Amino acid sequence: MNEIFEAIKKASVEIQKIIDVGDTGKSENENSTGDTQLKLDIASDIVIEKIFATIPSIKAIVSEEQEAIVPLNEDGEYLIAYDPLDGSSLVDVNLSVGSIYGIYKNDFTAQNIIAAVYVVFGPRVEMVVAADNCVKMYKLFNNSFEYIQDITLNEKGTITATGSTQMCWPDHHRILVNKMFKDGYYLRYSGGMVPDLHQILLKGGGLFSYPGTTDKPKGKLRQLFEVFPFALTYEFAGGAASDGSKRALDVETTHIHDTTPCFFGSKDEINKVLEVYKENV
Ligand code: P6P
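That is the input. Now the predicted structure with 6-O-phosphono-alpha-D-fructofuranose docked in place:
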């Protein structure tokens, strides 16, 4: 799998250059989820696919920016689902964005995810690798990634990141969020999944929530290349991830662009989600 991590490092150096100089305008196209694709999305996707195509161990890829599975090497061992530049519209307001990669074996399902990587493009470029039950962070320095630290979550944290808009929250979700504010949690939400989840990991814990909402009953975030990679990362860091009723990595996938409600956090906060949802749904 090391050659995949090295490939992601190579792609990330290229993507950072695209962010620095790229055209942040809209393209003419939409992706499979109906999002208007930015030129940055497409350019980042092209970089990643080109580099992955040179790695013999990669059998096929799924990209947020492409409708179908892209076969690469018939004898490859790994499948990769990725979001090339999540939250790309935030580049225009100079906020952090990120790439997310889920590495799977045999099939694109939660049960088959074996590793995850995300890269934060912010004041610094940082790469986090979740593999073999641990989470390791690297920082880009002079075109190479240097190991910084392992990441572990406390049992309980202090941050709450609340997705969507209150108008679209179901009542039981509003009860949960209000309870957390009453318990003194700090709201930290940029609208970028990667930096928002990275902050909770580095600050020791809390809760990121993107529930089923009145406008998106099945949630907004995509299973294969957003939810499952972060669910694995949070579990390997000693936290947990849920869809509001069960473990996020027990969610069934029927289509490669499926979404799911999702909650990522320290164990105490995820237990709180399950408790409040069970009592109020
Ligand atoms: P909302 C960005 O568009 C994204 O896909 C994730 O990065 C982020 O967590 C979420 O959408 C934000 O969605 O509805 O809260 O603006």
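Residues 86-87, 163-164, 191-193, 220 surround 6-O-phosphono-alpha-D-fructofuranose (CB under 6 Å).
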